[in-house]
Structure formats: structure tokens, C-alpha cells
Amino acid sequence: MFAVTAATGRVGGAAASTLVDQGKAVRIIARDAGKAQAWADRGCEIALATMEDRDALTKAFSGCEGVMLVVPPSLDQPEDLPKARAIVAAYRAAIMAARPGKVVALSSVGAQSTQRNTISELTILEKELADVDLPITFLRPAWYIENAEWDVASATNEGVIHSFLQPVDRALPMVSVVDAGRTAGELLMEDWTGHRIVELHGPGLVSPQDIARAFGKALGRDVGAQAIPHAAWEGIFRQQGIKDPEMWMNCLDGFNEGWLSFEDAGTTKRVGRIGVEEAIAAIVRRNSKTMALV
After folding, report:
1. Hey, where are the domains in the chain?
2. How far apart are CA 98 and CA 101, in angstroms?
3. pTM of the model
4. Which of 158, 150, 155 is nearest to 294 (CA)?
5. Angle CA(287)–CA(224)–CA(241) in degrees, nearest 5?
6. Topology (CATH) of 2-286
7. Which residues are within 8 A (CB) of 223 and not within 5 positions of it... i.e. 6 or more apart?
8. If you average pLDDT over residues 168-176, what whole number do you get?
């Protein structure tokens, strides 16, 4: 039995699908039975638990060969990250009590950084599990290509994507969420001892201009990339409803300045299969019902 948290999300869902497709017994941990019904229809067991409920998590993790841990990302947390700390504390307590055979914890590129940003919630995850005497893999994917879903409307209607990553011709490691989930599922089926860090990137470096060109190919129109001036970021984020955007802005600065990057030393590399054109084409297909040129 393998337990997967956040399977209603894209990465957790891809991990669960990978396991199910390989004929593995899977226990989906969800707070809402209705949202997990599709997994029940695929033959999965459903365990109801919130991510802060260590007792329910302990029960859900018990008897499992492997467990996948996901801390849902939040762009709007204060600097001390109270929600992430509560989730990580519950995960640690449940893992220590249930003692599954192995753990894959979804982390991120840049989790080793000491500078405060939204990825720091995954720095906390890695540090809090560092002394747990179980086989643990920390999977650190690159920037997700699917973050470009933010750009569907402007690419479709204006022929431009507005980029927080800049300069727009600078390429950096990116990966599809599908590859991240598939890799997590594959890692859960492996055997290893101790702790390891696996850094995951896609088949090539990707720039915002590459994303714009991929949108252009998928939409059948010219699409360019424009950098959003840094001075405008805070106002944009607050308009989007983010009350405390500083940590998210620090994260974007980290990618642009290069201090959020792969650690390299002492890590293992994995390479995804899905390139930028395939990932963007999938985004366009998912959003095709709501997109219309104006």
C-alpha cells in the first residue's frame, strides 16, 4: 500500500496515477470525500484527513510501504510560515508514529537556500525530517512550466505573456508537473537507504521567450514576452488578493538573481520527458473552452 497526500492536485495526482497504472494499491489522503471520488472509482482506498491532523495522518500512513508528502504551496503567508509549519509538524509526528517503509517528500529547487521566500516552507520540511530514521527522498523539481497557465488569457487575446521571470531571454531549468508527479511515483517504487536529494529538470532549459513561442505554436498566432517592471509587482499581487506578497516577490527575485537554483553537490539528477511545447499545448487544450480571441 502506498499513501499519497494532495492527490487532488496535479503533482500528487500524477504520482498516484503512476502507482495505480503499475498495479499498486494506493490510499488517497483527502479532506473531502467528494473530491476524491474519482480515485475511489479507480480502485483506490480513501482516507479522510486534514494535513494538520496528526492522528488521522498516522492512521492513514500506518501499514504503508511508502508515503508521498506534499505541502501545498501558498503565495500568501507571513514570513514565519505558520500554516506550513503546522503541516510539517503533523507530517513528522505521523511519520514517526506510523513508520512507513519509505517516504518521498515533494520539495523544490532552491530548498537549500537560507534566504526567506515562499520555498522556505519546503526548507522547513527538509529540516524537520532530517533526523527521521527512515528512507526518505526529497524530490526537488525545477520551476514548473505549468506556472505559465497564468498567461493563457494574455497570450490568447493580446499575443503577449507578461513575465515576472526576467530578462525574458534568460533560460533556466523548468519541468512539467506531470514529470514531477510521475517521478515521485517512480521513486516510491524504488528501494534505497538513508536520505537522498533528487533534483529534477526537464529535457532543456526554458526562457519566457521559449514559453511565448510555444504559446504561439499552440494558438496559431504570434506571441511575445514582456518583462513586468519590478516596481509594479507589489501592486499587481495585492490586486490579485495576496495580502502579504513580500515572500513571493523574494522567491521571484531568487530565480531572477540566481540564488534559487539547484544545489548540485551531493544530489542525484533526474530528467523529465515533457518539453515546453508539449506542456504549453496541454495548457491551451485544458483552457480551450474559456479562451476566445477578442
Report:
1. 2-286
2. 9
3. 0.95
4. 158
5. 55
6. Rossmann fold (3.40.50)
7. 155, 159, 160, 161, 212, 213, 215, 216
8. 98
